[in-house]
Specification:
The complex is a heterotrimer. In chain A, 14% of the residues lie in helices and 45% in strands. Chain A is mainly beta. Helix content of chain B is 58%, strand content 14%. Classes of the chains: A mainly beta, B alpha+beta, C alpha+beta. Strand 1 of chain A pairs antiparallel with strand 2 of chain B, so a sheet runs across the interface.
Chain lengths: 222, 117, 242
């Protein structure tokens, strides 16, 4: 019986085709996401958010250059995180979200990434402005200290706001609010109370009542 | 029929390799063959004046295969020996025509110098 | 004869470093077949086996020259692609074994959840039931399903109240369950005080207890999450404790 003998080039191309077919098959089975947006959709599904639209995409070198999506639908605004691994493809990482129910003029939540072995935290705040009169937002974090309790304040920068689908969203890196080290302010230890407050401001500078925002639900999915 | 000299390296080896390519392509134009069969066929056609180091045929065959001029397959004989056969592809047939034309030009040039034209 | 041919092919092999194992095996087979054919032809002419083998090897030529020639026909670029593709394909399969098993676990959990009953949930708590009612209240929300399979009146840690048993799973059989969904159920607007549960990646089984005054005739089980609202009126049986 005849058996075809192949050149090195043919064999290499065949192996490469097998590798690509394997990746696509694993992708179809949900075991290896070729695209970050696939992992993002898996995030949204796992967090029971329903179908979401992408408002903004970003990367952050402090978070190992994963791909992060500010997403929203009519019920929630979420920050969905994905990370690439060469052997596992794009993996879902976290899915904090803020419900868009309630009467607050601004719906928001925050996500704090404590990095193992790192001095700084990465702290993001995101949400949607539902009161069209609100033009700026200030954040306050309350810290318990063994000597003195401390508040840190910061404005959400103008660059953090973006328009999408008739709404104004924001996604802000507010890591400067996160105090390190604890020896500041005469304390030997500072603990984040887990209390983060938001004050919306109208165009004429009038402050609306301050209220607390929550840590995003469904953080690390692994 | 010119005697094909033994390989002794350098420009002569290169020229001999090119001639061997033409010979291989011509042989395979008629039928599929395996390596040893090509050697014996060449010896027969050259009336035993042909001599080349037989093993050096194989890099030439592989090179032609890489170029797409030849296609190879293995086949088991009745005695259980597996032989690798080579057949000429369309690209190989075109290459043969080119090599033949080149050989004719070379032959004419030699003949005109030597005075055989 | 075989030994001579082996020595010759080995000498050629030393000069074909680019060849993979399979490629060299193919080359070696071809060269060996040639030597055997030549040897057979010489023996037919009356030569001894040893002499024929020696001559066949000699007329093959310089092993180094042959090896270098064969090596030159092997493209380093395609060799790199060949090795890299094989390496990554193997690594990928191995790396996906655990996620694959995890996915099978999800699928199994999801499929068994669809046929779960209150008795099959198997959660142990301190709850002492007075009267149980089996049901199958179904909530579909954001690609997930919550099924309340049983509710009961009773006591837990000395308090009277209502417990319910529920299971949740994704509509997509390959999707993960979400344990916050059952936790979103409230009884008469009050969040549960104690819960217990178990599950795997594909399914979550939970039971929650909410204090309720004994004798209460009915409670309203409410699911309210991200715009999805469900209410179920649950009549209560307190038995003799009412």
């Amino acid at each position: 019986m005849k058996k075809r003998a192949h050149t090195r080039r043919w064999t290499a191309l065949k192996r490469l085709a097998i590798l690509l077919a394997l990746i696509l098959a694993l992708d179809a089975l949900g075991l290896y996401h070729v695209l970050p947006v696939q992992a993002m959709r898996q995030c949204a599904a796992s967090a029971a958010l329903g179908d979401v639209e992408i408002v903004k995409t970003m990367s952050d070198r402090r978070l190992d250059w994963g791909r992060y999506y500010l997403c929203a639908n009519e019920d929630a605004v979420a920050l969905l995180g994905t990370q690439f691994h060469p052997l596992l493809g794009w993996q879902r990482q976290f899915a904090p979200f803020a419900p868009l129910t309630g009467d607050e003029p601004v719906k928001a939540c925050y996500q704090n990434f404590n990095r193992d072995g790192q001095d700084t935290s990465v702290f993001y705040v995101f949400g949607r402005i539902d009161d069209p009169g609100v033009k700026s937002i200030t954040l306050r974090i309350y810290w318990y200290g063994d000597q003195t309790d401390v508040d840190t304040f910061a404005d959400i920068p103008g660059s953090a706001y973006l328009e999408h689908g008739g709404h104004t969203y924001f996604l802000a890196d507010m890591s400067s609010l996160w105090l390190q080290p604890a020896e500041d302010y005469g304390n030997t230890k500072l603990t984040a109370a887990g209390q983060t407050f938001l004050t919306p401001y109208l165009a004429d500078g009038t402050a609306l009542p301050e209220y607390e925002i929550q840590y995003g639900s469904w953080t690390m999915l692994d | 029929m010119p005697r094909i000299p033994r390989y002794n390296g350098g420009a002569e080896m290169k020229q001999n390799m090119e001639h061997t390519r033409l010979l291989v392509l011509s042989l395979l134009h008629g039928q599929d063959m395996y390596g040893y069969q090509m050697i014996t066929e060449l010896e027969r056609k050259f009336d035993k004046t042909f001599s080349m180091k037989e093993g050096t045929l194989y890099p030439i065959l592989r090179s032609l295969e890489n170029e797409g001029a030849l296609r190879a397959y293995t086949q088991e004989t009745e005695a259980g020996r597996v032989r690798k056969y080579y057949s000429l592809t369309k690209k190989g047939a075109a290459l043969l025509a080119e090599e033949k034309a080149r050989w004719r030009r070379y032959e004419q040039a030699i003949n005109s110098v030597v005075g055989l034209a | 004869m075989t030994e001579q041919f082996e020595r010759f092919t080995l000498a050629v092999c030393r000069h074909v470093p680019r060849a993979t194992g399979d490629e060299w095996a193919e080359m070696k087979a071809e060269l060996t077949a040639h030597l055997e054919d030549h040897c057979d032809a010489l023996r037919l002419r009356g030569m001894s086996e040893e002499a024929a083998a020696e001559r066949a090897v000699r007329e093959m030529g310089d092993p180094e020259e042959i090896g270098n020639g064969l090596n030159a026909t092997l493209s380093p670029f395609w060799g790199f692609i060949l090795r890299l593709s094989t390496f990554f394909a193997v690594l990928l399969v191995v790396a996906c074994i655990l996620p694959g098993l995890f996915q099978v676990q999800i699928l199994w959990g999801n499929l068994t959840a669809r046929f779960a009953t209150a008795d099959s949930i198997g959660i142990r708590t301190e709850f002492q039931a007075i009267a149980s009612t089996d049901c199958d209240l179904r909530i579909e929300t954001k690609g997930h399903v919550v099924r309340v399979l049983r509710y009961a009146t009773g006591t837990q840690a000395g308090e009277s109240g209502v417990s319910f048993w529920a299971v949740t799973y994704a509509k997509n059989p390959m999707g993960e369950g979400n344990d916050s969904l059952i936790a979103s159920l409230t009884v008469n607007g009050a969040r549960h005080t104690r819960g217990a549960g178990h599950g795997s990646a594909g399914v979550v089984y939970s039971t929650y207890f909410t204090p309720v005054e004994p004798g209460t005739e009915a409670v309203t089980l409410v699911f309210d999450r991200l715009g999805d609202h469900f209410e179920f009126e649950l009549p209560l049986d307190w038995g003799d404790a009412a």
